[in-house]
Each structure stands twice: as C-alpha cells, then as structure tokens.
Amino acid sequence: MRALLVDRSAPGGLRLGQAPDPAPAPNQALVRVTATSLNYGEVRHIIEESPDGSVLGWDAAGVVERAAADGSGPAEGTPVVTLAPDGAWAELRAVDTHRIGTVPQGADPGAISTVPVAGASALRALHRMGPILGKRVLVTGATGGTGRYAVQLARMGGAHVTASTGNPAAHGDGLRALGAHEVVSDPAESATVDGVVDLVGGGQLVAAHDRLAEGGTLVAVGHLTGEGENFPFGALFGAPERHDRTIATFFLLRCTGLAPDLTWLAERIATGDLDPQVSWRGAWDRAPEAIEALLGRTLHGKAVLEIG
Ligand SMILES: NC(=O)c1ccc[n+]([C@@H]2O[C@H](COP(=O)([O-])OP(=O)(O)OC[C@H]3O[C@@H](n4cnc5c(N)ncnc54)[C@H](OP(=O)(O)O)[C@@H]3O)[C@@H](O)[C@H]2O)c1
C-alpha cells in the first residue's frame, strides 16, 4: 500500500512511499482510508520521536474493507471514522473495533476525519465537567481544531461560553459564529466560570484556574506552550468559598468507550449540527504544506488530507 512514511530528510518529516499492508488482529477491522486530519500533537511531537519508515496518524475516515474476525464492529462496506495510535496516513489501516464509529452514508469523509482527536477530546473534556446546562464554560486555545469543537459542543450543551484566543481581532467574529458568547484575549479577562477546557497549558492554565468558581472543574487537555504550570502560593486552597475545585487530565488514546462518541459526532456533522471547521484541505502529498501552516499558527481549525 502507499503511505506517508517518516523521513527526517524530507520536508515536514514525511514522504509518500510504499509500506506493507497491515495484518489485522482478530479484534481489528481493516479499513480503506479516504481522508485523515492532522493534529498538533502528532505533527509537533510524534513525527520527531518516531523512527524513519514509521506509518503514523491518529484520525482516519474510510470504509470497512474487511470486518474484524471476532465478529465485533461494523460490517464490510460500512463508512467509518477511526482512531488509533498510528496507521492513519496510509491507504489501509487495521483498527481495534472499540475505536471505530459508524458514519451516515453520503457524509463527507474529509469533514468526518476531523472527529476522532479534536471532536472526541472536546466532548470528553466537557463530559468531565458533568451537566453544563446553564453553567459557564471557558475554552482556551479556542481557535484550534479541538477548541472549535469545544466551543460548539459547550454551546450545544447549554453553557454560557467564553472563548480565549491570542488574536480576538482576527478570530472573534468566527468564534462568536460558532457559539461563543464572549471572546477574550487572555483567560484572566474571563468572568468566573464553572468549567474550563484548557488547550494551552502554562500560564494560561494557571490564569484559567483562577477564574474557577466553587465546585468547578478545569480539564487540562493541551500543553501548547511547553511551559510548566507555576501556581502562586494560595492558588490551590484559595479563599474559603473556593476550596472545592478540580483539575482533571486524560489522554484520549487511553480512553475507553470511544466508539459511541465517534458515531455521535459523525452524525452531528452529517446533519450539520456541528461544523468541523476545515480550514485547509488537499491531497496527501501536500502534507508538508499543511504541517508548516499548523505549526506556524497560520492555519486555525482543521487540516484535512485526502488519501489515495
Ligand atoms: N489530552 C489529549 O488526549 C489531547 C487531545 C487533543 C488535543 N490535545 C492537545 O491539545 C492542544 C490543542 O490541540 P489542537 O489540535 O486543537 O491544536 P491546534 O489546532 O494547533 O490549535 C491550537 C490553538 O491554540 C492557540 N495557541 C495558544 N498558544 C499557543 C502556542 N504557544 N502554540 C500554538 N498554539 C497556541 C492557537 O490559537 P491562537 O493563535 O488564536 O491563540 C491555536 O489555534 C495540543 O497541545 C494537543 O496536543 C490533547
């Protein structure tokens, strides 16, 4: 099969080449991939950390070529959306069936391919807060792939949404169109909130935690700045009326129960209830171009590669 292979001498660290077809385990379906979306974590860290010749990629949409031998998961010919630690940037991938969602017939695979990491992480982060109907939610790094899903899903869940971006002049209108009630340039400017989806980390996490009300939860999803989190003395016990606050973390690739989330998100995209915010789309041999834009912060939203 053809695949994007790690090659440090190539632009973006990837080149299109040949790799052996994957051999699915009994609990894995073989999927013919038609589209993949790129995520900050994999292009910033995983390419760098993987040996030359590796086939990487977390998100893929496609069609089941061969159902899992153990009878689990969708049947041959089913359009699917998939998540795995590697193998998405290839014509074929083998995926554990508990990480496969089904997709309505006729849905755009490019749009659907944005669901696994960005959509499912945003959904999982909001679930960690408990019910958000009538609550206030702050999203930091809101212009990114995950942030744009978090803003839409928080609004859909009935929250009052504050979005934080480094550039409100450029992105404020777009974030309000997605459902944000307010847009701020720093979490410190936010009113008190009941929940935070933090995609940035470092000083922004510390500032966002300071905005949490009693009983609130900050879900630390992203760590874009590469900075540590230095809390001033008192920040974690705070005033007596704000003792009960939670900081939660998760790593999506270690989460269970993903298939229903992937299916639900794919349905919302197919119906138009969610906008995947695809801001770059092209053939997979243009991957280096998309990676440069993503890492250079000139691409806000999702980058989609069409496979094959
Ligand atoms: N825990 C998990 O399982 C999990 C799952 C998904 C994502 N993540 C993490 O969440 C973070 C966001 O992922 P993503 O895919 O949404 O990223 P993305 O699409 O690249 O978006 C990141 C956004 O954050 C803002 N930002 C602020 N400070 C930044 C900085 N120093 N460097 C780069 N961007 C900065 C940028 O917006 P402005 O330019 O408008 O400020 C950018 O639009 C990443 O750290 C990723 O690894 C973790």
From TrEMBL:
Domain of life: Bacteria
A Pfam family of this chain: ADH_N
One Gene Ontology molecular-function label: oxidoreductase activity
UniProt-listed InterPro entries: ADH-like_N (IPR013154), ER (IPR020843), GroES-like_sf (IPR011032), NAD(P)-bd_dom_sf (IPR036291), Zn-ADH-like_protein (IPR051397)
Domain Enoyl reductase (ER) intervals: 9-305
PANTHER family: QUINONE OXIDOREDUCTASE-LIKE PROTEIN 2 (PTHR43677:SF4), SHORT-CHAIN DEHYDROGENASE/REDUCTASE (PTHR43677)
Record-given protein name: NADPH:quinone reductase
Species per Swiss-Prot/TrEMBL record: Saccharopolyspora shandongensis
